[in-house]
Amino acid sequence: MSYLSIFFQYAGQYLKTRLTYRADMLVEIFSDLLFQAVNLIFILVVFGHTSLLSGWSKDEMVFIYGFFLVPFAIFGAFFNIWDFTDRYIVKGEMDRILTRPIHSLFQIILERMELESLFGVITGLGIMFYSGHQLGLSLHWYDPFVFVLLVAGGALVYAGIFVALASIGFWSDSKTDIMPMMYNIGNYGRYPVNIYNRIIRYVLTWILPFAFVGVYPSAYFLGRDEWYGYAFFTPVIGVIFFGLSVVFWNYGVTKYRGAGN
Amino acid sequence: MDYIIDVKDLRKEFTSHSSRSGLKGAFRDLFTRNYTIKTAVNDVSLQIKKGEMVGYIGENGAGKSTTIKMLTGILTPTSGLVRVNGMNPHKDREQFVRSIGVVFGQRSQLWWDIAVQESFRLLKKVYNVPDEFYNTHMADVIKTLGIEPLLDKPVRKLSLGQRMRCELAAALIHNPPLLFLDEPTIGLDVLVKLRIREFLKEINAKYGTTILLTTHDLSDIEALCERVIMLDEGQIIYDGALRKLRENWGEGKQIQFAFAEEATHAELQSLTQGHLVLWEQGGNASNWTASVENNEDIISAVIGRVVGAKKIADLKIVEITTEEIIRNIYEEGVIRNG
């Protein structure tokens, strides 16, 4: 498939450019790691005061956080579209995108990828193995495949929500704070949803389904069978949300007004 | 007759809301908004044949860029028919853009940080150009544009003229039969301009590439295009040969005076009373230009009277330039009696 070979061409070029600015790359990886460490410490501090939170132990919480890091890293590596309105609509870069024979969203993914974010996958896996070991979890032969499927679902949920938000830029190029707000809301998905009240739980499941990025899929690996239904629903939700957001995006492209010269 | 660009009653409207004044107005804006519809392109129809080089001109905001953006599939028209290369640009966008090349003078197609040849290679992949075609075709383009020494430099280190030549080459990687150029020579020095013009003529002759060009620099149009389409407030006000435009409009002459001392408009006007002379001030108060009919008697009479009354440092008679013709058309409208 030609999209795949175009992807590798871009990725190769990206690495080549990044390697010439090695210091930048190291700083970025380091700041990512620091950010992840702060979040982990937060969880540990909370559990310094209590041993159980709505029936979840510390190690389970840490495991969920570890899982969350994986789809989030993949999302962060390929969907850097939080500044889409500024960069592509206001500055008119979308004009250029639209004169090339590849799907516009795919081009933006290619142009904005930040492969060093993928480092988060390793951190996430590390945290999961450590806390999984503490919990005495065992691994089945099919678990890696389920893992890939659930991670893909989670990443698609994130991508879907942010692509839909970016698409708003086609109608209105005014500045909003909706993107950073959504990043914050996204963080709620990495804590067990039953610690929240009903309304928030409903929102995190069906409206802004961030729960499908962290807690629901992790429940499968933690053997929490009361959540299995949700866990296996993760890829479905991912495909639905991402699919809808692409439809919304495509419609938005026809409303693109262009930047004045 | 098959047209490469066939546009009928093309229209593009932009709605924008106008905000009311004051705090009270802002509150009212929250609930009901005043929308204003601005028609950027107003029922434009045009046909362009294969191999033509057409200049598309107009003042800022006349709708040139909007038209080009609709023809290239960037913007969706409000109404009207567009067929370019036999396709509907915004419907089959991804398929369609393979058949066109686009250069926006104010926007780079190349990657800022990477070497020019890496940019070319990415584009080659994007357009899926076969190796052997790329090698022969691009070698030719690169040679004609003289950009071999620039290939391994990153785009950000190029001068504007160097970058523009690379942009042109990048737009031609897939050898499109139709090329859109939006202000390709903006800000370039004369030598680069000449080189780009030569190159455009060459590819037009060699591949029969159709070229639609917008520019503020009318010398581009004079050098390249036999046909011009002139746009004003979203409508075509002239579509035809550049030569004809000159014949109908360029019949006057200009006499440029540089006086030894300063002169005033009233003073000069009273000197040439009785003849139809339009006086305009040049750079300073002692430089004046008189526009007159192309008639030897009148020219001699005007010069005679002025020279008789005022000391002269320099004197020149020139034909009215295309630029002035265009300016006159915009000021007076294209239909003139006589």
Automatic annotation (TrEMBL), chain A:
Bilayer-crossing regions: 25-50, 62-82, 115-133, 145-171, 199-221, 227-251
Keywords for this protein: Membrane, Transmembrane, Transmembrane helix
Pfam families, per database record: ABC2_membrane_6
InterPro entries linked: ABC-2_transporter-like
Name of this protein: ABC-2 family transporter protein
Organism field: Fictibacillus fluitans
From TrEMBL, chain B:
Pfam families for the chain: ABC_tran
Gene3D superfamilies: P-loop containing nucleotide triphosphate hydrolases
Source domain of life: Bacteria
InterPro entries linked to this entry: AAA+_ATPase, ABC_transporter-like_ATP-bd, ABC_transporter_ATP-binding, P-loop_NTPase
Keyword check for ATP-binding: yes
Keywords: ATP-binding, Nucleotide-binding, Transport
Example GO molecular function: ATP binding
SUPFAM superfamilies in the cross-refs: P-loop containing nucleoside triphosphate hydrolases
Domain called ABC transporter: residue spans: 25-258
Protein name: ATP-binding cassette domain-containing protein
Organism this protein belongs to: Fictibacillus fluitans
